[in-house]
Amino acid sequence: MSKVKTRFAPSPTGLLHIGGLRTAIYSYALAKKSGGKFVLRIEDTDQKRLVTGSVENLKNSLIKSGLKWDEYYVQTERAKQGIYLKEAKRLIESGNAFYCRCKPKNPKSEGYSNILRDPCRSKDYETGAIKLKVPDNEVLGYHDFIINKEIFWKTDLVADTTLLKSEEFSNLPTYHLAVVVDDHAMGITHVLRGHDWMPSTPIHLLVYKYLGYKRPEVGHLTDILDPDGGKLSKRKGSVSCEVMIGDGYLPEAILNYVILLGWAPKDNREIFSLGEFVKIFDPRGFQKSNPIFDRAKLDWFNGYYIRQKTDKELAKLFLEFLPKNVDYKTLLRITPLVKERLTKVSEIGTLAGFFFEKPKVKQKLLGKNASVHLKEAITILKKLREWNLDQINSVLTGLIKDKGFETGSFFMDLRVAITGSRVTPPINESIVILGKLKTLRRLKFVLQP
Ligand code: GLU
């Protein structure tokens, strides 16, 4: 297989969306599988859409997912070198583009309308914005290597599109010119992008042809759908990598889940690290139907990856979701008690917060025999010389037997009094870690009138 070079070309307009991450992963895998290069290119020429901090954020999200780029470019930097202006002028010289002097509707917006056949095309202006002169009665087509189909357009439906803005707007290129010039200049062999970019493709096909460039292979990915229908949106929760990590998802779980959004291996295997995925990735494995973003499945992956962590690794991750002053050694002892129960790392707060802070106990959570249960527990626990699991287990089971308590309700009262909650890690193990002093104090506190 000859070396493939791909690029991920985000516009810095916000956080890295799940769909963007998916494009990046597949592009990365396609290149790396062949021993080729993966390029990160920041497409920032549409100045009015820029969001401060996005570039750093996009880079961080890619790094967290393990997607390291081999080359890095920023289009506005390249624009300063006159790269796009030069190519746009070549198009003017060859008669395939023209200067347009129409003023943008809103002078601040930099936006030129792309009318089907712009009257300026026959005016022979010598300055202005540069627009593509789209021919009539031609058919444009290409073979999409993801969809695996020939796709055609009649040029009569393709508008005279702006390629380069006027001097007033620093001669910045639009996406349509910059993407073609750069994919060529950077030696990109395969372009992978979201389905919503499909309408731009005929414009690019013309620009490739008129500039005399060899066209890369182009492939469009299916849209990710919301379970309620329509394109994936924020309605049901976060869909950007950064917010999801902040919500307690692990980058490796997000990565694994995203890999399977519309692609499947031959053997239906589900668990992949990035390296394993690169090895088995085959672009013929793309499914035709649109994948649905299934949070329950993502949660399953997250739980799986949480359980793959060592206790040390997990305890470190917990720190982000707990008060600053928690004791790391205690946290390390708590970790094995909660590991099996977590779906998200952030749940550590609700599940184990009681270790670090005295909980508020709602009386209504206690059973009708709570005061007898707790009084007896205090008496017997107080006598314990050694505070360990064996001792605690044995005196409490002995107590239940002697007094004829109902096991379930006894332990529920103990649990609620100590933790404030009915759902917690195993209670006897928890009080070992909590220690004698705090355990007795909490039990007594609940009994106070
Ligand atoms: N800059 C476009 C984006 O923000 C990239 C489209 C492409 O990959 O050609 O998604």
TrEMBL record:
Q: What does the entry list under GO cellular component?
A: cytoplasm
Fetch the Gene3D superfamilies from UniProt: 1.10.10.350, HUPs
First-level EC class:
ligase
Q: Where in the cell is it found?
A: Cytoplasm
Q: Where is this motif: 'KMSKS' region?
A: 231-235
* Binding-site positions, ATP: 234
Q: Name one GO biological process term.
A: glutamyl-tRNA aminoacylation
**Which catalysed reactions does the entry list for this protein?**
tRNA(Glu) + L-glutamate + ATP = L-glutamyl-tRNA(Glu) + AMP + diphosphate
Ranges for domain Glutamyl/glutaminyl-tRNA synthetase class Ib catalytic come to: 3-300
Task: Please indicate the residue ranges that the annotation assigns to the motif 'HIGH' region.
Answer: 10-20
- Supply the alphabetized keyword list: Aminoacyl-tRNA synthetase, ATP-binding, Cytoplasm, Ligase, Nucleotide-binding, Protein biosynthesis
Q: Output the Gene Ontology terms for molecular function.
A: ATP binding; glutamate-tRNA ligase activity; tRNA binding; zinc ion binding
Which SUPFAM superfamilies does the record cross-reference, listed alphabetically?
An anticodon-binding domain of class I aminoacyl-tRNA synthetases, Nucleotidylyl transferase
Annotated InterPro entries: aa-tRNA-synth_I_cd-bd, aa-tRNA-synth_I_codon-bd_sub2, aa-tRNA-synth_I_CS, aa_tRNA-synth_I_cd-bd_sf, Glu-tRNA-ligase_bac/mito, Glu/Gln-tRNA-synth, Glu/Gln-tRNA-synth_Ib_cat-dom, GluQ/Sye
In this chain the Aminoacyl-tRNA synthetase class I anticodon-binding domain maps to: 313-446
Q: Which Pfam families does the annotation name?
A: Anticodon_2, tRNA-synt_1c
Decide whether keyword Lipid metabolism is in the record.
no
Q: Please state the Enzyme Commission number of this protein.
A: 6.1.1.17
The subunit field of the Swiss-Prot or TrEMBL record says: Monomer.
Query: Family assignment?
Result: Belongs to the class-I aminoacyl-tRNA synthetase family. Glutamate--tRNA ligase type 1 subfamily.
The free-text function statement in the UniProt record for this protein reads: Catalyzes the attachment of glutamate to tRNA(Glu) in a two-step reaction: glutamate is first activated by ATP to form Glu-AMP and then transferred to the acceptor end of tRNA(Glu).
Q: What is this protein called?
A: Glutamate--tRNA ligase
Species of origin: Candidatus Woesebacteria bacterium RIFCSPLOWO2_01_FULL_39_10b
